Fold these 2 entries.
Entry 1:
Amino acid sequence: MLETAWKAVRGLIPESHRQEGDGNGIIVHDGEELTIRCLDERACVFVMYDGEIAKCSIQHLYMQDRFSWPKPQSCHLFPLRIRGKRRDQLRFERFSECAPALIAGEQQRIPLVRFLGEAITRVFGSSFYDELDRRSQELLSREEEA
Ligand code: SF4
């Protein structure tokens, strides 16, 4: 499926990304799992630039109804990662570039589960999301009472 996306985004991404993906492939095994190739261990080959702002070219096309599916599920879920041998664990991954978003979420009292509600529902379904949200709210209430 990513190969289809790769063909669709060619006109949006920088030439260096095209060369990297065409020359070395868009998927790489990082020693643990398959992942999308990045340039200089930073920008994914699917990144496009709107001025100084980096955007996902797949999501960009999807939002414009020019592509039939949004960015990959693992990207949509980030900074939650699916882990475990049976892929049955959700873990939070700390990433320094997300720090401003975490601070804003704390100030606005938006739990990560709610912020990622669309992605969690997309990947695990609405029953799972509802239960996770209920438990997250319980934990928050307990924290506030303590
Ligand atoms: S959302 Fe995923 S596919 Fe899109 S640019 Fe970011 S890492 Fe790449």
Note: The chain has two domains: 1-70, 72-146.
Entry 2:
Amino acid sequence: MSASPRLSVRIDRKVCVGTSNCAEEAPRAYEMDDHASPHARLDATDDDLLKGAEACPVGAITVVDATTGKQVYP
Ligand code: SF4
């Protein structure tokens, strides 16, 4: 797998409820800050970005192709 990500994510702060499922399921891709708000890590792989997005119980994470902008998940 390529080390450089092809995907990027948008985290909707109004939808996120701070469960930290994303960071628990994909800790190499997401981390929680001091305010229980998740952030995507810059060195995250595509697989880990998707894995964390799929773990979100409220659908707060949208994954897009960083080149085309096309939505990949959900
Ligand atoms: S899993 Fe979803 S709701 Fe939970 S912290 Fe991550 S983005 Fe927020």
Note: The chain has a mean pLDDT of 93.
